[in-house]
Amino acid sequence: MTNKLMIFERKIMRKICGPTRTDDGYWRIKTNQEINDILKGQNIIGFIKKQILNLLGHVQRMAEDNNVQKIKRWKLVSKRPIGRPKIRWEDDILEDIKSINISNWKKLAQNRVSWKKVVDQARTLYRLLCLRRRRRRRRRRRRRRRR
Question: Going by C-beta distance under 8 Å and a sequence separation of 6 or more, which residues neighbour residue 122?
Answer without folding.
Answer: 49, 50, 53, 96, 97, 99, 100
